[in-house]
């Protein structure tokens, strides 16, 4: 590698991560929506899609020596941007409308609702992941503090 300095590497890190994240987020969103609306495929896989939208930009950014968190953030923004363009200025709930619990595949494959349904499902799965991470962190902190109780009391 040739010497580019701190500013050059920082500029590359920011620009590269935003480009990688936006490209992968946009591509994934449109590919899943196309599979759902044209071939009735990729239905019910929102958890895997959400996890993939975290791991794919993270790995690509790591390979390109860019900022990984920023790439994942840009991918999330690209998903929301694609959803907003497809559903207009309506909220996710208004864009999806009433969902029949026995036939949610029809809503997920509907051409006007596919983007909003995917964004809502991925958002819900991400909230579940956040709650699991919070529980794991609190369990770890509790275990560490329980081993230090004797030291804290005798101090």
Topology summary:
Elements lengths: L4 H35 L6 H18 L4 H20 L4 H5 L7 H6 L4 H34 L1 H6 L1
Contiguous runs where pLDDT drops below 50 for at least 5 residues: none
What fraction of the residues are assigned to beta strands by DSSP?
Answer: under 5%
Order of helices and strands: HHHHHHH
Number of helices: 7
Broad shape: flat
> Tell me about the biggest sheet?
none
In terms of quaternary structure, what is this? single chain
| Cα-to-Cα separation, first versus last residue | 54 Å
How many separate domains make up the residues? 1
The percent of residues in helical segments reads over 70%
Count the E strands.
0
Average pLDDT, all residues: 78
Calculate Rg over CA atoms.
20 Å
Task: State the secondary-structure class.
Answer: mainly alpha
Plain-language structure description:
The chain is mainly alpha-helical. The protein has one domain. The chain is 80% helix and 0% strand. It has seven helices and no strands. Helix 1 packs parallel to helix 3, helix 2 crosses helix 3 and helix 2 crosses helix 6. The radius of gyration is 20 Å and the shape is flat. The N and C termini lie far apart (54 Å).
Provide keyphrases for this structure.
155 residues; 0% strand; mainly alpha
Compact summary:
The protein has helices spanning 5-39, 46-63, 68-87, 92-96, 104-109, 114-147, 149-154. The chain is mainly alpha-helical and 155 residues long.
